[in-house]
Amino acid sequence: MKIVTESDFITSIADALHFISYYHPLDFIQAMHKAYVAEESKSAKDAIAQILVNSRMSAEGHRPLCQDTGIVVGFVKIGTEVRIDSRKPLQDLFDEGIRRAYKSESNPLRASIVSDPAGKRKNTKDNTPGVLHVEFVPGDKIEVSIAAKGGGSENKAKLEMLNPNDDIVGWVLETVPHMGAGWCPPGVLGIGIGGSAEKAMILAKESLMAPVDIHELKARGPKTRAEELRLEIFEKVNQLGIGAQGLGGLSTVLDVKVLEYPTHAASLPVAMIPNCAATRHVHFELDGTGPAHLVPPSLDQWPKIELSLGSGARRLDLSKTSRDEIATLKPGETVLLSGKILTGRDAAHKRIADILARGEKLPDGVDFNNRFIYYVGPVDPVGGEVVGPAGPTTATRMDKYTEMMLETGLLGMIGKAERGPETVDLIKKHKAVYLMAVGGAAYLVSKAITASRVVAFADLGMEAIYEFEVKDMPVTVAVDSKGISVHEVGPKEWRSKILKVLG
Question: What's the pLDDT at 184?
């Protein structure tokens, strides 16, 4: 019987979480680069370029790829001829590894987990507890697959209890366009088929732990019905024209994974969970000889891509920008922002709403008139950093507060993904604008932030209101003052182009 020590298990979990915070899997990078080379949509190609440049920067700087460093999910398979030398529950050991990783001084990771989810939603401060799946298998090793799953992609998870003869591919093609771009495509779709409702969801999540290999599968041909589904869904989802960040283009998914399990004769559970452009997972084994040894990938494996966002981009000086100037911005236009912006996301918007409902004044320094708000919850800075990785969060979660915010005199909003139809109408009514930063390029975005200070709601941690001073922060005009949304017109245009080519 082999013995794995408590210390080795905890250390391996902590090390793995740091490793995946700044190293993309190489298979993912290679697939993203293929998508970049093939992409014909300028907006989508620029977005993929930012993701790839951000990935290399994070690998070099050992700082998170994305500000949302995720909820930790682990699949632990324990061999029947090995045991962990501990009297503590495995969940406790798992959580201790998470705690050590997320509270690290050299590379602090953003704590996003809240307890009392249907009530006060208080941050646990150390990103615990994680979500742990345990299985006993033959063998004398412990196999661990661990991932940090971002909220933006996790929120797009879908489950449908289909009838036995329903069309799985048809359901996927109907569902994906309604998922929006908050999952930061291009990424990977994990699909679980069979079992029960909860089993299908676990299968979908576990499928995302596998390497990106759709091109190898395509070259050799499918051998099973599951592999046939992978190829069919991959081709047909990309034909939807959704593209990188939902801007319209050729690459919406980099791979499709399918896991199956026997199910009841009356049932066909199908689950779908996307992995975003900040795909983070790693796999290791423990055999009693010490903690896992994770080998850093060579930086030579990353493509060398030069960003050219400044070429032809419009520069906006936020200290001088007026509503008249905002009215001249065009949908899909690249803009470089310089000046001061305020930040705010879910908890801050809720607190603002409560303050205004009571007829009270907002805190000193919180004046949105003729200003922009950035939907972000940054990672804590280290060393000489002004701020840690600070990419955008999904804007649709703030839709219900948009009218309230625009009535304060707000000029515009910055986030990721699309806005809902009612919000687009409000943007048009108030002659405001919505700008999109690239999800999955958080470290790159943080380099455009030259100063940062908390101005209100410090107790909310990463959800506090900050004032950022930015220099040439790259964004795309996603909804202009006339109410034209690139997330609506872009995919339609590219789907039409793709269908014409296909005949």
Answer: 95
